[in-house]
Amino acid sequence: MTPLAALQASLARWRTFSGRSRRSEFWWTMLAALCVVVLALGVDQVVFGGGTVAVDASPRFPVTGLALLAMACPLMALGWRRMQDTGRPGWLTLVPLAVVVPVNAALAAGWLQTGRNLAYIVLTVIELAALALTLLLLARPSEPGANRYGANPKGVEA
What pTM was estimated for this model as a whole? Predict the structure, then answer.
């Protein structure tokens, strides 16, 4: 599958959580998403001085925030289908969020301090481990033949 065909296949099913997606579809779309984020960060830097801290101590990344918001559902659906292609339930793509969201909420509320705080270090290691495990599962080969999530995508690589 060519990179453009993989990206088109992914974008055509941007809100579909059922079925399966090939590895090439997943990784080419993730590369395109990374390029969009890098471009948005560049626009933020040029137009808004992104990365600099404003008077109210909040960084200014409006274009990047909008880009991430626009890509959230399509990328979640893609990861969900990719996980199902490996024969695992799609909800496993949410495992890193189950750690990241509470930790960031605790940071925002002031219940957890960054830096040398042992709780912060332990939770950061758990976040990274959950992300690494999820990426390893997404990188697994497709399950051969049909599985409980649907038929094997056409031309699946090993």
Answer: 0.82
